[in-house]
Amino acid sequence: MNAIEFDKVTLTYGGRRVLSDVSFSIPQGAFIGLLGANGAGKTTMLRAILGLIKPAGGAISVLGKPPTRGNAAIGYMPQARRAHNDVGISGLDFVLSAAGGHRWGWPVPSSAEKEAAWKALEAIGATDLARRPLAELSGGERQRILIAQSLIGDPQLLLLDEPLISLDAAHQRAIIDLVHEIGERLGIAVLFCSHEINPLLRAVDRVLYLGNGKAAIGSVDEVISGPVLSKLYGTHINVVRVAGRIFVMADDVELESGAHVHDL
Amino acid sequence: MSTIFDYEFMRNAFYACTIVGIVSGAVGYFLVLRGQTFAGHALSHVGFPGATGAGLIGLSPFLGLTVFTIAAGIGIGLLGERAHRDVAIGIVLTLSLGLGLLFLHFYTAFASQATNVLFGNVLGISLRTVIVLAVLGVAILAALVLIARPLLFASLQPELAEARGVPITLVSTLFMVLVAVATSEAVQIVGVLLVFALMVAPAATALRLTSGVAAGVLASIALAVVIAWISLSLAFLTDWPTSFWITALGAAAYVISGMARRSTAAPEARLADGNP
Prior knowledge:
heterodimer, A: alpha/beta, 8 helices, 12 strands, disordered C terminus, B: mainly alpha, ABC transporter involved in vitamin B12 uptake, BtuC
């Protein structure tokens, strides 16, 4: 069974067509880098997989079923829109808020929920952060807490939206290796969103590259190439490889890091 | 020797401060956690024309205030993200105060009460008002307990909560209604312009000093109640306005908690950064 299947899917966001007629499939257990510039539709695609938006055309299948909101089989880490550096809540309580967070009542965790939260923190090697307030954690530590939260409920598919944002190179490597290791250990597919390919090169099985409403999937060498990306963007693209790093250029402007600057 | 509790108005003031402190502390904790503190500020401003308008047509200003804040709370809850627009909020706030002023202009007999609505008059609270505050307070706390779990989840991780099936618009709208009623209560003590002092300062201080939700809510409640009690006592001794003391003590608590946290948290934070 495939973790995710897109069959001629068209997605719109705010009346704008973000993806048109996109088909691909992602096998269970694969580590996929979801790439593309800001606004290419990465988050919209994740929201469609989560069942939060309906495709305007085509069919999506997630773990063999149509997407439904509240699907506990999907672990999701949204893009951090808030720094959380003023939150006086411990790492454990933060992770716990996702366990049974849809039920009504005062948040007194059951023993099963506590167990799930500790298990998630253990999986990410963050039990030492459990008692400390989020406000006191560094960016990399906070990111680990967010990933632990996505592991609540034993997901069979992990969707991570820009986990590398605002991390330095060393922390980026640590997060990627950690997620890669978790994916392999649990045998689940990981869709890892990033607008930069280079940090991901060490871990990804395949990349799914979005641009101009279209998508290309394959190995890094297959997808990150001049002809494929030129076709995707509809303009001439050069791909330059220097010292193990990849630079995607259009008319001498570097596309990926250009998109990156705004987020820092 | 006469004591502060020999006067009925002082006893009523202490009852009212206790009730409103508990409500403001509890609701304020979630308000600060959600980063929606200015919503509380905005709601009370919108309440001002409600209070003066009700006075104009012969109704209770408290009723008018509450109806207007609830309507505004529902509006903010339903608008969600779209309500976070500086200019739009500013224009609504000034329009509200302007309308309130217009109603006062037409109903000059009420003008003497304008200062009370704007800055509060805790020493003028009747036992009847205390009972109303208590009934509303119990209702607010009961409703807050009911929605606390999804509210906490939606406050910390809104997109994830949405994906997990939490009805986030419903939860945030219900919460804004609670904020609206809590605001109306707080206005009785500190007035429309100073609601921040009771709703936000104790809660923000508590969030700095605690790391658990239950501990944070209890600390926030305790701070709000103690600040209100000390302020009443100081007002009795100095004859300065209670509202002034509440703002001053709230600000002091916030500043001191910031210094306390910096001195305890700094070494740990440095250690963490050096240990990736």
